[in-house]
Amino acid sequence: MYRLPVTSLWPGHLIPLLRNRKWPFIIYKEFAMTASAALFDHAEEAASYLRQRLAAAGLPTPRLGMVLGSGLGGFAAQVANALAIPYSEIPNFPQSTVEGHSGRLVLGTIGQVPVAVMQGRVHAYEGYAPQQVTFPMRVLGRLGIRAAIVTNAAGGIRTSLKQGEMVLLADHINFTGSNPLTGPNDNRLGARFFDMTSAYALAFRKLAQAEATRQGFALTEGVYLCVPGPSYETPAEIRAFRALGADLVGMSTVHEVIVARHMGIDVLGLSLVTNMAAGVLEQAIHHEEVMETGKQAEKQFTSLLTALVPQIVSQIASQITSQTGSNEHGASHR
Ligand code: HPA
Fold it and tell me: Is 287 a catalytic residue?
């Protein structure tokens, strides 16, 4: 299992006290630097294990990564020539403990495109640090993906949304109080400071809108707000989030997207409204309802994503060609 970076073992409230004296600060800095180098090494170790498994199965390197959220794991059945690897077999990978998250990385192809599909993810509420939650995205980045599709189950805050509706993410609000990039930066992974203006690539959003229209349904866009969970929200919290500009609420995705952008990966985000958020309707929220809605919406979700994967990958390829004048890919910081 991926070991907790040493920095996250330090009780946060002690750090300012320790910083008043020089020697503990030096030790803290040493530990922190070691932890960030370890993250790179651990991700590289997992990526090289996957490279071996891919080679042994005669599969090409994935061009696109996908994360399937609660109740959406069935999409992995779309992967042809599938090689499914349980997370427990991948060095340093965190294990998911939630019902409905199988915890397998499915390698193979969708419409001839080599993909890596995460069937299940880990969440901060399981006790994982943000660096652990985002570790799989680091590994996919090290494998060389340039595009990621992240999906989740979410509560609908905007009252015009309907249970079972898919919403394209236009932006997010990180309401977790944490960031996976806290601590020293490893330049081999990405820059210290980086832009989040286009966290969800406009070009991908346009492709998704056009594809939804082609398939005969309207795809609204929304802002996703991430809470730590695991408790669902109170009605007062939902009113506050609505005032902040959120349309959807959930317990995942934003940390992954931050790490993806850090590595120069372009992102498409999709939420499935599994329930209306607390207080929107006069009824309680149940996890079973969240899972059930996911299964019901699977058909539309599957047809949209299956069509989008090749389009997204050719979009990335043409972007790279226009930037470099060649077909080669690879971000400058990798
Ligand atoms: N709140 C938070 N996370 C969720 C919800 C919700 O209402 N529905 C699905 N994931």
Answer: yes
